[in-house]
Structure formats: C-alpha cells, structure tokens
Design goal:
heterotrimer; A alpha/beta; B alpha/beta; C alpha/beta; A: alpha/beta; TIM Barrel; four-stranded parallel sheet; 19 strands; globular; B: alpha/beta; Rossmann fold; five-stranded parallel sheet; 4 helices; 8 strands
Amino acid sequence: MRTLLKNGRILDPSQDLDVIGHIMIEDDQIAAMGPDIPSDDVDDIYDCTGLWICPGLVDPHVHLREPGREDEETIVSGTQAAAAGGFTTICCMPNTWPPLDNPSLVDFILDRAASPEAGGVFVAPVGALTVGMRGEQIADLAAMKRAGIVAASDEEFPIQSSFIMQKAMETCVQVDLPIMAHCEDLSLSNGGAMNEGAMSAVLGVKGIPRSAEEIMVMRNCLLSLHTGCQLHVMRVSTWGAIEMIRQAKYLGAPVTCEVSPQHFVFTEEHVGEFDTHFKMLPPLRTQVDIDIMLQALQEGTIDVISSDHSPHASHKTQAPFEDAPFGQVGLESIVGVTLTHLTHRGILTPLETIRKLSTKPAQILRLDAGTLKPGETPIAQITVIDPGFEWTFDVNKTFSRSRNSPFHGMTLKGRSVLTFSGSEIYRDRHFSDDRITMVT
Amino acid sequence: MGSLVLDAADMRRTLGRMAHEILEAHAGGEDLVVVGVMRRGWPVAKRLAFVMTQIEGVTIPCGRIDISNYRDDRPASVTDESEIPFQVSGKKVILVDEVIFTGRTVRSALNALMEHGRPASVELAVLIDRGHRELPIQPNYCGKAVSTERGDHVVVKVHEMDGEDAVIIETGVLHGA
Amino acid sequence: MARNLLSIRHLNPDQIEELLTLGREFKQWVVEGKEIARLNRVVGQLFFENSTRTRVSFEQAAHYLGLKSVNFSTTGSSLKKGETLKDTILTLRYERLNGLVMRHPSSGAPALAARYFPGPVLNAGDGRHEHPTQALADALTIRERKGSLEGLTVAIVGDVEHSRVARSNAWLMAKMGANVRFVGPRTLMPAHSGLLPGDVFYDLESGIKDADVIIALRLQRERMSDGLIGSIGEYARQYQINRDKLRYAAPDVLLLHPGPINRGIELDDAAADGEQSVITAQVENGIFVRMAALYWCFYEPEPPKPAPKSRAKKVKA
C-alpha cells in the first residue's frame, strides 16, 4: 500500500524544511520525502496543492476526563476530537477521578486509547506528581514511568509547599521525568474567578491577582534552576510570568513554557456580562499581556502553543459566574485560531507555527513525534492543513462531548483537513474528493 | 471458522455486569485488587479493574501474574513477566482469567500468587466457563458459561493482542483422533 | 413587554429619572391613602441569602401594588438538594410566576436567571455586584432633601471592594450628575478602580471634605479574620463617621447607611441619630422605589413614550 501526498508545502521544523514537494507513505511509514521522489506503484494520490504538509501536531495539555467524568469527555471522544483537530499525539492530564497517580490507571488509559473505536492518536499520559494530587506525598513516579507516563504534574492543584516541590523536582531528576506545572499561589487566588483588574472591580467578582501566577512561576523556575529538574510551565498568562521565564532561561534553568490560544486572543473585557465561556485558569488578562505574549512567541521565549482542552458539562457552565468551572474545549479550534491570530498576522512564520504546535512539544516531552524524517516516528504521523480555508467554528459540530468554547461562532482562516497516523485517521469534508486519485 | 459467543459489545456488557457483581459482593472497592493471569487473562483483568475504578471513583489496581514457571504441563521458562505494582498481603484479590477449563491454570496461578504475599482472600473471575474441570475449582464470578466438547477451542480475542474483541468457539477434532 | 432591573450600570439617566419619578408618585399616593391599581401578577421572592430587610421591603411594595408575592426561601428547598440555579428558575417559570425578585451570593446570578425567565427579574442584591433598589432608595431620599443630584459631592465610605451598595450608588449618582468619591482603607478598595465612576480617597478627612452626602457602608466582621483590617477598633478610629468627622463635610450634609448599622463601628450614636442622618427615611423610601421598580419592570412605556406619571394615573383611573 503506497500513498502519495503530492505537491504540498512541506513544513518540517525538525529539519528546518520549508519546500514544495511530495511525501510517500508506504504501509504505515514515511518512505520518502522531497520535491522529486519516484512515484511509481502508487495506490492513492492526495493532491495537496496549496496545502501545508506538517508533522502530526502534538498537544501537551489535554484533559480527557476519563475515568470519572465520562459525561464531559472520554478517551474515545477526546482522541477523535484530537484527530479532527490535526493532532496525532496528545498528553492527557492526571486530574481525573480517581487521579492518575498509580501505574494501573496509566495502563488503563493507554489500553483505552489504543482501542479500535478511539481516534487513532497516541495518548501520552501525564502522571500525578503527588498521591491524590494532594501535594503531600510524592507518587510512585518510577513505576508510573515504566507504565508509560511522559511527565508529572499536579495540574489544577499546584503544590503550595516549596519543600514538597523541591523534593518532587529532585525525584523527577532521579527518574528523569519533566514536571509540567500549573503555577498558582492559592493563598493569593483564593476563590477568585477572573483577573483582578478594572473589570472585576465593576462586576464585583473576586479577582485573581497576576502575582498569584508570577510568584509561583518564579518559585518553580528557581527550584528548577537549583535542582536541575526539567520544568514546563503550563499556560502562562501575564507579562510578569513571561519575564520570569525569560530570566530563568537566561540563567540556564531547564525551563520551557506554553500558552493557550484564548490567552492571546481574549482579554478580561470579554467576560462582558458574566459570560462563563470566558472563565479561564489562569484568567484572561489585558492587552498589555497579549502584546508581550506575542513578542515572546515571536522571539521564542514561549515554546509551545497548547489547547488546554478542558471539557465541562453544560450544566456547569450555565451557572453563576463564580460557581462555573474554569476552562474551554480547544482541540478542534486551535489550528484555526493560531493561524488566524498569529500566522496570518505575520507574528509567526508557518514553520515557526508548526514548531510550536508539533516539534517543540515533542522535544520537550521526548516523544517520538513532531518530525517527518523517515523512521524517526514509530508510524507515519502527518497533518495536512489548508491555511487559506475560511470557516466558522461551530462547537456543536465537534467530536468533543462538551460544548464550552469561547471561540464558538468565530470566523477562522486555516484548518487541518487530513490527519495520518499510520493510515488516514481523519479527513475533513472540506478536503474535496477531486483531490484524491485512486490508482487501481 | 467458529461460532461467535460474544462480540465486542457483548464483552463490554459482560465485563460491566461482572464488575458490578464484584463490587456488590465486597460492598465497594476498598482493599480490592485485581490480578490477571498472563497472557489473555491480563487484558480482561485490566478492563474489569478499569470499569470498577470508573464505578467507584477509587483506583482498583491491577497486576499480572506469569504462571509459566508453575505449570504442570509445560517446562518452566526462564523469564518471569509478573508485575504486581502493589502489596498483595492483606488485600482481597480478584484473580482473573479469560477461560476456565480444567482448572489447572488457576491452580498454578494460585501458587504463583502466594509467592507475592498473603492475601486476605482470593476470588476467581472468568469471562468464559467452558466446563470439563479436572480439579475442584469453581469461579466466583463468571461472564458466560458455554457448553463445549473437550476438543473445541475457545478463543478469546482482545484488541491489545488481536486487534479485535470477540469470543469464538472453534470446533476441533479430538486429540488422538 | 417586560424588562429586567439587573443593575444601575446598564440604565441611562432617563430610565433612572423614570424610576425616581415613579417612586415619588407612589410615595405621595400611599401617604395620601389613594387607591392604587392592582397589578394582579404573582412575583416570586427568591432569596438565596438571608435578608429580612430587603425581603420585607419588597413584600410591602408588592402589597401596595396588589401583587401577590410568593416566598421561595432557600432553606429546606430543593436548592439545598443540589439543584442548579437554571433548573430552579425553569421550575418557577413553569409554576407560572410572572416576575422574580432575586438575591444571590454570586455576582451576576440574576443576569443568568433572566436568560431562563421570560418575565421581569429584579436584582435584590447579587454578590458584590449591584443592589439597584437600594441605590434608588438612597437617591430618592437625597432628592427629597436636595432637590437634585446634579453637582452634589457624594462620598461612599467603608468597605467599597465588597459592597454592592457602593457600586450601585456610584453608578446612579454619577449618571445623575453627582461627583462620586470612594473612601476607605486600601485593603477594602478595589485594586483597579479605573472603570468605576469615582475618585478614590484613602483617608476620611479629605474624602468627605465638603461632601454634600455621605453614604457609610456596613463593615462585615469577617474582614478582620480575613486579614483585611487590623482590628475593628483601629478601623473605627480612622473611618468612623462621628460628630468630629462630620465637621469636615458640608454643613448641610446628609448621612446615609444601607443598614443594618454596626453602631460604634461605621457610625457613632450621635451621627446615626443626629439631624444629618436620614437612615430611617431611606428604609421607608425603599418601599416606594421598589414599587416603582416592580411597576417599571412590568409596564415598559410603549412608544411614543408617555411620561411615567401620566401612565401611572391612567392605570389608577
């Protein structure tokens, strides 16, 4: 079985490659790539003229909710959403119920993700850093690593004690695991629901000060510097936090960070009249933060763009603002939003866009992904993006089981249209049949 | 060729029912652990444990036990692939195999299990009981009992190993015939 | 066509004028014992937070308007059984209630309720957000004595950060042409007050200097255990309105307090019972502005817009 992706713009950040060319997939492997490759004995030809051919996208920050909240998302629906969004590898967060703090659960999740009804994408679980994510006792990270976790995190329950965090980092150096940290000083955020600013003052909503995030970013960066533990800061939102990370990188700390699209698209003003779809953690900040964030994306201080896909049941989002949960679904909108707001506005080149969506997260978490080099990934992982396609994001037409998205109804330019993981796992209906030739 | 006993959906329903039975008998998941007999008992055990985890909201840990060194019908192998990442002593162990036939596998598994500790109790759960016991061993929880001829093969397929979920009976010829 | 009263922030000066004029009319009629047309509707009093004062005031207002008021207190109801707010509102909708008066500890909850309820929803206080009818009562009280709000200096003193009364009053006074000042310790002030209509003062003397109106806010005792103020005594020494401090204000200053008063903390007895104090008038006017609010919500003037006064008389006739 030979499939040819013909005449696309090949973007492979792992080789700094940006050329027009073809890719040959033989069985489930990339066999050849380049502007001029032999194309005899081909079974299927996909005409990719005008489209980008990229390594399969990698999302290091996804909540699959299973086990515990199967009404909001399951491993099956979440991986299908990922495939539709152009992802071939996603990392699932440990804040399930029960939390992902032991090897048996890691095993369960890997099995479910590999089941035939799932979306066909690789799921790389992130284990809990402490037992029950209670921030007290370090979980059995070595056993979980053997079972398959790629990083450790306490996600929404950030470790408050600096002592425990230091011990956790030392343990992670020992077992060679990166830590993914959500940075929040809970004593400062203490029940807050949105950015502490002019909007929270008007709405009378308890605010989360920016220092709640920045203090923890600073602490974690310093602990990372002194223990040598690889630290990935999840979803930064303030200019101060970005400055801390810039400084930590300058000092040589093994620190990377990510940002989620909502934080460079929306500000606190989008909360408007208590719209719970704009309740995020960390909260939406201000235009100043966005400006610095765009700069940091451009110069590389921000390494990764992740969706922070956080499905919530609609009865939870149809609640008073302060009682509603934080977060949004994002797997199926992130490509469109990123291209619309960053690439097409000239903030990131196409190659840098793909680097932040694929190659860089794969390198940070040491995944066999994020490259088109033949043989570097276990099976061919390819995403084809139509950068010029204009569409309106309709959250009701997504694979996710939840409908909480601030991007609903937005006009986006750019969309993933084909996803390959070994074989074709998703083909968008906008990838017209005329582009496919079956040679029989 | 063979006749289909359970398809993937049947298998999911059957395991769901067994999970509820086990939790009911033990009034919850406290101190419960699951150990699957390698090879195909293990994936069945994992699914059973996961369903129970989903129902109870506490992790029901799952391990696997390699009985190749304990069999009375085959030479011992060199490697032991058992992995039980938790304490067995004092726990209520649910031993899981995909099919119970003569009962010899279970006997070997019990021997192997005892080397890992002293459980508070051991119960047996099997997906298929095909009869023809040679030892006084009965499952506590059974997915489906099917009547077979001695020479038949009951094949349990799991997607982790076989790419699909199904239970099939292949009619065989009698040994020596 | 019904409308909601969710906040003062969203009203324009004409609408505020309509409400205050209606309030004055109703007061006249009630005082003179005139008969008022019965509205013949059922209003649910939905209090997710205890507030005897506001509830009694709304019930009185409903009584004068001939509205039937149904109590839906949260203790012992399904709200304690984990029902979502949306489901509660939908239930009341299909219990065929015509309007809702709602108090909720969460900012913005009445706005959410209004999405699922077709009739008018009146905010009787939501979290730290707004308490529109209290501000209307205060404005009516001030107007009765000063004639107009235009050009007055209004100082709002105390725990501004946590006060819905402060927010509603600030919007109302500013929209009607008054100069608003927020006065209080930094820990009880919003960290960013840029979008709020008023100037911020951190010491009482300069904050109330030459003020025509002082609105003292209630200080919750929890603020001390939350670490926001040193001690009650310390707070009282710096921010209590008493006879000495009143000398900084204009000679004919009016002193308001939304109640309940912590005597000896926000106000001393001399100030609370003094000639500048209009606190009891505020309570009484609360009934009339709530009548106005209920009436205004049920009867939106249709274009061409007749004056609320003439419409009210037409109904009466």
